[in-house]
User: Fold these one by one.
Assistant:
Number 1:
Amino acid sequence: MIDVEVIRARSLGDIRHGFLGRRGGVSIGATAGLNVGIGSRDDPAAVAENRRLAAAAVSPGAPLLTLYQTHSADVVTVTRPWADDDRPHADALVTDRPGLSLGILTADCAPVLLADHDAGVVGAAHAGWKGAIGGVTDATIVAMERLGARRERIAAAIGPCIARASYEVDEAFLRTFTAADPANERFFAPAREHHHQFDLEAYVANRLAAAGLTRIEALGLDTYADEARFFSFRRATHRGEADYGRQISLIALRDD
């Protein structure tokens, strides 16, 4: 079995964290590798083992907490563990409690990990286009501030997500963003007639900067283009595949 690949961000320093892809794990078939998606059609035993492997690779011994993600701007403040079948409906988590591993699942959407090292506060956000334009990162920052973080100290890293070259959208999609702010047109590039290429990573980075963050790292890793390394919902859809895997991004405060 291939070892679990953990991609780290310089901006988050020694905070326990990692962006994981599909390398490692026990799943086979369409979801081969480290598929952690409870909602996939994968063998539940394989998913459970992959989740154990993922958590152990980043923060050994820490309970893994994930959400029932709904592409919202809802944030959960975590004070204690919960069971996988009791996951809150939300798209971001924050905590100031050591020893809890916060996890966000993605398969093209942008995972964002955040930390105020001095305050001892961390967060994780699932920023698909709906959540991103809806303000999920802004809401995560506010929730971190309620725990004592200060936005001028918060570092953020944007992990593997679909890149502009792989993300074609239609005119209605463009209008949704320009209606919110005409300046959003700069995140779109021309494509075939009546279509555009959307830069999700750049848009999320801009939202973080507009919120007052000054340490923002974008890893520039394209989930759609790198099949060997990442799962991709859009790639699976374009191929007419019956299922797709989900990767996980994790962050935790040390309890040692």
Number 2:
Amino acid sequence: MAAPRPSIILVTGVSGSGKTTVGELLADRLGWDYAEADDFHPKANIEKMRAGIPLTDDDRMPWLRAIARWIDERLASGKPAVVSTSALKRRYRDMLRRPEVRSVFLNGDRELIERRISARKGHFFPAKLLETQFRELEPPEPDENTVEVSVRDTPDEAVQQIIDALNGPAGKD
């Protein structure tokens, strides 16, 4: 028997990988709600990143707990949603993992992502912090059952690949 379709999709990757763009488009295509993980950061985290100071694991814990609470609330209410979050390390993803949650990883090369970050207007995350994100990134392992999509794909192509993967053999147990 096929497992039920996930009711929460995490769109993960380093800053500038297209999480918001892909996440919003995916949620729109599915008719689900969307949440931007940056909105869960305490003000102190935003100010620290704006100042070019990388976050520590201690800084990230309240943020991850807030996202996990939001996921649990969504699951309890039966309202499916997409949420974008860097979830750079496995232990972060493990905090957010639930049977009804499926992860997507937007994977790409640093040069392309750095160009994207440099072109963004009005975002608090400076390009110089990208180095720390790549240094801390622990790409998903096969046992995490993550859909991997290249950042070189257009957002429409990425979303279609995600939907196909969720509806195909990888989306069934």
Number 3:
Amino acid sequence: MLPPSFEHPFGTDQLGRDMLARTVAGLATSLSIGLVAAVASTVIALLLSVAAAIGGPRVDAIVVGLIDLMSSVPYLVLLILISCAVGRGLAGVTIGMALTHWPSLARVLRAEMRSVLARPYIAQSRSLGVGACRIAMAHLLPAVMPQVLVGAILALPHAVLHESSITFLGFGLSPDEPALGVILAEAMGYLTAGAWWLALFPGAVLALSVMLFAHVGELARSVLDPRSMQE
């Protein structure tokens, strides 16, 4: 329980472990989980939006209903339910975030694909006998790829923050796994003893990381979005 010093910039915890090393290891774990969850949720959103675009009115209605259903439940509640149902731990948290972070991106991609399908060259392609799958590969996917990349980048900070949140609440990673949520949950029991550094530095690293990736996502949007590029 040593306070911050030159030897231990973030101090040490109740077991004498260096908090800087623990924070770096916890951030790496949280980023790894968030990256896998962001990629998986982006793939789910892309597949569902393509199915809604080329599958006809009935498939489109099913996808829209699924998006509305998932959006009607708060992220954390649904994430906790899925994580507990899968078995918690690393796999439960990753699967839970992958299954809960796709609706907003799927809604954007579906709207963009419907806009592309309404253009004259799509009607001309269909009149020439081009199939739906070829239209999706040749026209829909290239048109929405900027939104896909931006959505994946913006999903990363949300996934990191939500992973830390449910782990802090006790529904995520187990206490023996290095993660920022675990570190913050342990620190709450020692704040009354004056060990403020156990929560301050890991919490600040988490907040700055989320803000950094969110800013990177906004920059990517301004670069990749044609409307922002013209402005």
